[in-house]
Amino acid sequence: MSVLIKNAEMVTMDDQRVATGNLLIEDGKIKHVFPEGELPAFCHATEVFNAEGKLVIPGMTNAHYHSYSNLLKGTESTYPLEVWSLFTVAYGHSLSDEDIHDAVLLGAAEMIRNGITGCIDHFPHFSKAEAALEAYQKSKMHVAFAPMLHDVPDYEFLQIDFPDTIKQKFAASKPPTPERMKGFYEDLINRWHRKNERIQIMVGPNAPQRCSREMLRICRELSELYDLNVHTHLLETYIQHDYGMKAYKKGIIGHLDRAGLLNERLSAAHAVWLAPDEIDLLKDRGVSIIHNPASNMILGSGTAPIMTYMEKGMPVSLGTDASNCGTSHTLFEKMRLALMMQRNNASEYKWWLTAHDMLEMGICQGAAMMPGRRGKIKVGYDADLVFIDKNSPTWATVNNTHEQLVFHENGQSIESVMIKGEWVMRERKIVSFNEGEVIDRVRRRSAYRQESTAEALAFAEEQQPFFEAIYK
Fold first, then answer.
1. pLDDT at residue 346 tops 80
2. How far apart are the C-alpha atoms of 49 and 32, rounded to whole Å?
3. Where are any strands of DSSP class E within 292-401?
4. CB atoms within 10 A of CB 394
5. Cβ–Cβ contacts within 10 Å for residue 387, how many?
6. Same domain, yes or no, for 163 and 304?
7. Domain that holds residue 12
8. pLDDT 10s digits, 104-129
9. Are residues 314 and 283 in contact, defined by beta-carbon separation less than 8 angstroms?
10. What are the residues whose beta carbons fall under 8 Å from the beta carbon of 168, sequence distance 6 or more?
11. Pair 124, 11 in one domain
12. What was the pLDDT predicted at 443?
C-alpha cells in the first residue's frame, strides 16, 4: 500500500526547521520527501491525503508506562512510593485476562489520541502477558514489552519485621524463581518478539533491589543471548538510595554493575537519586534515562537531575508512568512539566532547557530506545505521523512552531494518526479497534473488580503501618 501526503507542513526532527512539501509512503516507510513545488508528475499512490492546514510531526514514544494502571484511575493516594506500591499491587490482584486486554486498549486509545505511536510497557502481571500482547496487536501500536522480573519483596529489602500473622500470609505466595522466569521469557520471545515489526520483547527487571543476584544474572543472559534491551526502575526515592547503600557494596548501582547490566542496552526509569560518580558511571556505560516528571511529583519522589544528564550527553526520554500516579498519557503535558521543573531549579537561565530539547526527548530519544527507525520524518524511517489541525485557537497565529507545540499544545488539536503507513485514527475516530466496545466492557466489569479487590486491599492496609514506620 502507498500513501501520498500532499501540502504537508512538517516538523521533521531531522533539524530545527519546519519544512513544507509532500511525502510518499510505501510499505510503511517514508519512501520520498519532496520539497514544496518538486512533486514529480509520475508520483502515484493508492491513497492521496491533502494535509493542507495541518502540521505533521513524527509519532511520539512513551518510554515508561504501565498499561494495567488504566483501570486504576481514581485510586491515587497521598502516600509516597513505598506505601503507594502496596495498594497498586493489591488492585492488580483483581485484574483478569479480559481486564488486562481492555486496559491495554484503553491506554492505546488515549496515547494515539495524544500523538503517541509507541511505548515501553513495564508489565507486572507476567501470567497475563498473552492477553496484553494480543491487545497491542489489535491497536497496531509499536510496543517494547518488558514483563517485570523480581524475587525480592520490598519488605525484605527494607528490613521490615512483620508479625507472624503477616509473615504466614507471605509464606503462602512465593515469587517465581529465576529459572521459571527465564523459561517464561524464552517462550514469549519465540512467539512474540519482532511480530509484525511492531512488537518487541525487552528484559524488564522490576528494580535492581527487587532482584536477587541470580535474577539479575538471568536478565543479563536473556539480554545477551537474544540481543534484547533491558528496562528497569532505578533509584526513584531517597529511601531506595539509603537502604541500597546499606544492603549492597556501592549501593544499588553497584548491585546492577556487578550483574553486568550497566551498558548501552539499559534504559532506567526515574533515576532521581544518583550521586555524581554514579551519574558518570552510567554516562560512560551508555545507559539511557527516562524522566517521569508527573509521577515523581505526585509521589513526592524528588526531581531527577535532567539538566545534568543532558549536559553530559546522556540520552533522556519521557514517560507517563502509571495512571494511578495521577497522570494522563500525553507527552505534551510531560514536556511542559519537565521544562518547568528544570527551570525552577536552575537560576542560570542561559543553561535552561528549550522547547526543542523537550521535543527531542518526547519524539527522538524515546524512539531510539526501541528497535527500528522512528522519530523523524525522513526517508527510510517508519511512517509514524501525527496530523495536528491548525484551525484552532492554539494555532491561530504561529510565531515559533516548536515552542507552541511544547508550551501551548495539549493534544486536543490532533486530528489523525498514522503508524507504519496505516491510519489508526482518522478525523478523531480510532479506526484500528472499536474504542466504544472496550469502554462498554470496562464499565460492565467495574463493580466486580472493586468487589474482588477487597481482600487484597485489606492485606495492604494491614502492612501499611510497618511501611510507614520507615519514614520516621
1. no
2. 15
3. 316-318, 385-389
4. 18
5. 25
6. yes
7. 2-58+381-430
8. 999 999 999 999 999 999 999 999 99
9. yes
10. none
11. no
12. 97
Burial label for 60, CB within 10 Å (0-12, 13-18, 19+), is buried
CA 362 to the chain's CA centroid: 10
Same-domain status, 34 and 159: no
Q: Answer yes or no: is 328 within a domain.
A: yes
Q: What is the pLDDT of residues 224-238, one digit of tens each?
A: 999 999 999 999 999
Position of cell 506500591? 85
Question: With contact defined as beta carbons under 8 Å apart, do 8 and 54 qualify?
Answer: yes
Statement to judge: residues 325 and 386 lie in one domain? no
pLDDT(94) > 90: no
Residue with cell 512538517: 10
Long-range contacts of 178-185 (CB under 8 A, 24+ apart): 178/149, 178/151, 178/212, 178/214, 178/215, 178/217, 178/218, 179/218, 181/126, 181/149, 181/215, 181/218, 182/218, 182/221, 182/222, 184/126, 184/129, 184/147, 185/147, 185/222
* Cell 491497536 sits on residue: 139
Q: Residues for the chain: how many in total?
A: 472
Q: For 259-287, what is each residue's pLDDT tens digit?
A: 999 999 999 999 999 999 999 999 999 99
Residues 232 and 328 in one domain: yes
DSSP state, residue 321: B
Q: What is the predicted pLDDT for the residue at 23?
A: 96
My answer on whether 50 and 71 are in the same domain is no
